[in-house]
Design goal:
three-stranded antiparallel β-sheet; four-stranded antiparallel β-sheet; alpha+beta
């Protein structure tokens, strides 16, 4: 038992640290090829992996940690106007050449947990009246177009305002785009109205029409900071109605997310308990072998 145990955790979550530094006959690195493969006698020093049960449990814990991050982000945006919740999808990752013992039969196929992708829940949030004539809610799958330093971006956050230059902007100060560019008002304009098709008018006449888009593939859109979206192949909206004097609330369900958070926490604790039992079995085996020697 003079072998040392080494774990490369440079690109792994902190939970790997808890599971990697435990016994003196294993080492793990970032290469999937070695996961679960036993280090038989006569092999070169290098990749020696933990037992399969440890690895499968560890993959589950890493996926649960990522899922907890998603749930926490949803909870943090419970009251964010126009926020769309996220959900994590998992898939089975099969390791075709994994084993942890040297019996004379073919390598076993083991199933690990992998967080495959994050999907966007584009369902509508509740529409709440605000009485502010510059607020707009989008009844449908449409998004408002705004101009940012990185180019055009899209948002469901319809809390708009007029800045010091008379430009219609979102809460981050990004100009709201019409089909012909930014929308400007003078200090004397009153009676601002926004029709269902996005046409904006005031006491001085029509100012423009909101550039409302719908994503051809909503799941291909990428979420950016400040509740903005990019990509997704935006197309001119055809099924979206603009509602003046209202905003769309977050579609996050606080009760559902809290329930999911509890479920994820318990699942993580269950996986951690399995890891502890594996450690105890290994520790007991080492002690009995030492006594027998």
């Amino acid at each position: 038992m003079g072998r040392s145990c080494r774990a490369d955790i440079s690109t792994k979550p902190l939970i790997l640290l808890d599971n990697a530094i435990w016994h003196g006959f294993c080492s793990v690195n970032d290469e999937l090829d070695g996961l679960g493969r036993s280090n038989g006698s006569g092999t070169k020093p290098g990749i020696r992996a933990m037992e399969n049960a440890q690895l499968i449990g560890l993959s589950r814990q890493m996926a649960l940690q990522r899922q907890m991050d998603v749930v926490a982000n949803n909870m943090a945006n419970l009251n964010t106007t126009g926020f769309k919740a996220e959900q994590l999808l998992f898939e089975e990752y099969q390791m075709p050449v994994a084993k942890d013992r040297d019996f004379a039969f073919a390598d076993q196929r083991l199933s690990f947990t992998e967080d495959w992708t994050t999907i966007h829940d584009m369902s509508a949030g509740a529409v709440t009246d605000t009485g502010n004539p510059l607020d707009v809610a989008l009844d449908g799958e449409g998004f408002i177009t705004v101009q940012t330093p990185d180019g055009e971006r899209y948002t469901k956050a319809g809390s708009l305002a007029i800045d010091a230059t008379g430009t219609l902007v979102d809460l981050q100060g990004n100009p709201v785009m019409s089909e012909l560019g930014p929308i400007h008002f003078t200090a004397t304009e009153t009676d601002i109205s926004i029709s269902a098709d996005g046409t904006i008018a005031s006491s001085e006449g029509i100012k423009g029409k909101l550039k409302v888009v719908e994503f051809a593939d909503p799941q291909a859109a990428t979420r950016e900071g400040n509740n903005l979206w990019a990509g997704g192949d935006p197309q001119p909206a055809t099924e979206t109605r603009v509602v003046q004097g209202a905003v769309e609330k977050s579609n996050v369900s606080g009760i559902a997310e809290m329930t999911e958070m509890i479920r994820v926490q318990r699942a993580y604790e269950s996986a951690a308990s399995m890891q502890d039992k594996q450690d105890e079995m290994r520790r007991t085996a080492i002690q009995r072998l030492a006594q027998a020697a």
